[in-house]
Amino acid sequence: MEKHFAVSGFVMNPEKNKLLMVHHKKLNKWVIPGGHLEENEFPFAGARREIMEETGVTAKVLDCSGFSVSSTKKETQIPNPMMTLQELIPAKGDKPEHIHIDLIFLCEAEEGKVKGQEDEVNDVRWMSIWDVAEADTFDSIKAFAKFMIGA
Question: 0.85 cut: is pTM over it?
């Protein structure tokens, strides 16, 4: 089965009690912002780009490696994703069923004005972690919200 690399971000406010969510038109669900990784794009940069495109929010990508090294001319550490998911994407129109290898980054941004990408997103909003846990979304997003609540 064909596989595509995708990137997305759990974008939290600084207080860590709200998550930036988009209502995805094709999926008809609340999801975190994200999309396909472009050719020759660093995954963390792709996540930041997708967040900006879908929400109008500039997010800081946080490193989840738990270990850091000093940068040199030959080696520079880049942010690691919080998790990686294999997601089965159903066939739609002329696009066959395929798999997304989704690199999901932990991000932070100040709450503020949001602007949805009209061709992909019905709505964008900052949702409380408690609201996310009850939203029409995927199990992985609910699990993250419950983790943040401490449940």
Answer: yes
